[in-house]
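Example 9 (inverse folding). The structure is encoded as follows.
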């Protein structure tokens, strides 16, 4: 599989400051992957569940650490579903959400 595209996986760490206010810090990692559109059946099923499926990223499974946000071509997406397609590969399904 061609993994010549680049995406960024973003993890968020939540902590509190001295005033007990929640602070969110982001960490961004580059991963090599294959980026495709979601299938029609995935788009339809996601829509039935109130999601707006847009992209599928296929990458090496050991590169994924449970992140919930991905950035592709400067756009941020929420990772709403993962699927282990092969023992060494994982598919991330992305939707565009406001405010992420």
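The amino acid assigned to each position is listed next.
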């Amino acid at each position: 599989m061609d993994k010549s595209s680049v995406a960024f996986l973003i993890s968020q760490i939540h902590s509190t400051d001295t005033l007990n206010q929640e602070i969110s810090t982001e960490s961004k990692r580059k991963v090599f992957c294959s980026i495709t559109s979601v299938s029609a059946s995935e788009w339809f099923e996601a829509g039935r569940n109130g999601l707006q499926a847009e992209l599928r990223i296929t990458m090496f499974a050991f590169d994924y650490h449970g992140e919930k946000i991905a950035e592709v071509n400067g756009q941020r997406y929420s990772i709403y579903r993962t699927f282990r397609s092969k023992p060494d590969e994982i598919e991330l399904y992305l939707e565009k959400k406001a405010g992420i």
